[in-house]
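Thread: "does anyone have the structure for this chain?"

Original post by V.I.:
We have the sequence but no experimental structure in hand. Need at least a predicted one for the grant figures.
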Amino acid sequence: MKRPLNTLTIAFAALMLAAPAHALEPLPQETFINDSLRAGRIGDVIRKTCPTIHARMFVVLGKIEGLKTYALNKGYARADIEAFIRSDTEKARLKAEAAEYLKAAGAVEGQPETYCAVGEAEIAKGSLIGELLRSSK
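Reply from O.Q.:
Generated one for you, tokens below.
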């Protein structure tokens, strides 16, 4: 004999169906993605400024693909990811944050050796920035 559904069960089911899906935080606020993009920007500035530090391009490309996969798996739409990456506003924000990081780490504009020192320190620490770089010293 079947038992009829009680009122509490019906109310719970209705509530679950009416509840909105888990909302994703806006991409500019997603910590892992922004930390990764900032590290990439910092590494790029270091490699362009320091003549003895170069990008580990296969690592960089792998990290980019991994970051895209991470974002897609979290539920971000490919179009939203592309728009975020191409946004001039977001590029400017990450550029400013990278400049601030480099300055705090001891890099001085017009003094490539200071960028080299920051890069060498990041490589030695094994940080995400350091993983993207290699030294020819």
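V.I.: this helps a lot. The beta strands are 53-55, 133-135.
O.Q.: and The first strand starts at residue 53 and ends at 55.
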